[in-house]
Amino acid sequence: MQANIFDYLEWRGDVPFSTDPFNEVDNLVLAELAYTDFDDVVAPQGEPVSVRAVRDRYFRLHTRAEVRGRRTFTGPAPLLLDPLAGSVRYRDMRIAWYRNHVSVKESAQMAAITLWPGDGTVYVAFRGTDNTLAGWKEDFTFSYLTETPGQRMAVEYLDDHFRDGSLPIRVGGHSKGGNFAVYAAIFCDEGVRRRIRDVFTNDGPGFANAVTRLPAYRDFTPRIVSIIPENSLVGILMNSAVDHRIIRSSNRGPTAHDALSWLVRGNRFIPAEERSGFSVFFERSVRDWLADLSDEEKHRFVESVFGVLESTGSLTLEGMRQAPVQSALAILRAAHGLSSDRQRQVLAILTQLAMKGGTVFAQNLNGGASEFRRRLSAWLKGGPVD
Q1: CA-to-CA distance for 38 and 81, rounded, in angstroms?
Q2: Gap between the Cα atoms of 14 and 21, Å rounded
Q3: What sections of 62-100 are H helices per DSSP?
Q4: How many degrees, rounded to 5, is the angle at CA 252 between CA 249 and CA 254?
Q5: Residue 361: pLDDT over 50
Q6: Tens digit of pLDDT for each residue in 110-163?
Q7: CA-to-CA distance for 126 and 36, rounded, in angstroms?
Q8: CA angle, 226 as apex, 225 and 228 as ends, to 5°?
């Protein structure tokens, strides 16, 4: 049987932290919980609330059927509240200080929650990319900005809440939340940073080289735990300057990013021997492509692409999906309305990416263009590529 974090809570929820200390699977449970929409449930300030009280408040506002009907891979996150509240391991957990900030104007999306698992430590969980265009746009700016608005807010979150106190701190997140966790831990106040025991980035993207070359980043890397699935697409982007723990997922292709597909045995993830060939190919292709672009070219490209997407009138990817015809027409109109220089720039960059990808594929996977198209199509559909 293939087990995930829900199975972990069912099978090992009766094991207290005094018997089995906090582990990498516990980290993912709490990182995934950060995807819960805690609005009107957990206040941005105030005293911590028990996990049972949070569970009861949440399901007075939302039904479990509603949550199960959500179609995004992070949609089931609130269902973790039931096994957490009912377990020996987590029944003493407390939750506080929910912040959720999304700004189209700033191209920023940052959400965080603080949890006291019950083992004498505190875990700060940063949410990954949601389905807002603002959130996805910020992801793309990691390639050329040394600090994004969301990263700055993540630092402020740690400083605001942990300048005082003595408990050891863990920081973590999934996807972009992992990036925020690492960035906040490195650039927070020194007094806060000294208390940080571990930082978990769960398939989180890296940083521009200007960040990873900093002495403060290099000094902190021993405390960074990077976990990625064997078919990682996100966690291998940019540079992290740390070794990854490669694990198995029940999903193939890009859907391996879904943390609920990560396979668990006992209190550990099931390790994978190595990353898939396509994951390696994708990393080398993107890295080779970005190396030939200036920061200004990257900036112009991101502004062009998201200017087109935002012209649809939708603020979320879900909104675009629900109106595909209208969104497609809006994209075509917006693209046609770009200046000729901007159109040429976008076309040139996309062409360059395709050429770089073809070159890397030929060098590393010994395939031609037709083989590349076949494997790319199979991978996007979740099928095998090696």
Answers
A1: 11
A2: 13
A3: 64-68, 81-86
A4: 100
A5: no
A6: 999 999 999 999 999 999 875 566 656 666 677 777 888 999 999 999 999 999
A7: 11
A8: 145
Residue 272: closest CA among 240, 305, 248: 248
Residue 385 has pLDDT above 50, yes or no: no
Q: Give per-residue pLDDT as tens, 8-48.
A: 999 999 999 999 999 999 999 999 999 999 999 999 999 99
| Cα-trace Rg, the chain | 21
Question: How far, in whole angstroms, is CA 265 from its chain's centroid?
Answer: 23
The pair of structure tokens assigned to 385 is 């590529």
Indicate the residue type of 211: V
Q: Can you tell me the distance from the alpha carbon of 271 to that of 248, in angstroms, rounded to the nearest whole number? A: 6
**Residue type present at position 255:** T
Nearest C-alpha neighbor of 128 from the set 76, 184, 84, 74: 74
pTM value > 0.85: no
Q: Which amino acid type is present at position 366? A: N
The full set of domains in the chain, from first to last, is: 5-275 (3.40.50), 281-380 (no CATH)
Residue type, 355: M
CA distance 97 to 107: 23
Token pair recorded at residue 87:
């377990």
| Contacting residues for 378 by C-beta, under 8 A, at least 6 apart | 253, 384, 385
- What DSSP state is assigned to residue 382? T
35 close to 76: Cβ distance less than 8 angstroms? no
Helix (H) or strand (E) holding 114: strand 108-116
In 3D space, the residue among 367, 76, 378 whose CA is nearest the CA of residue 252 turns out to be 378
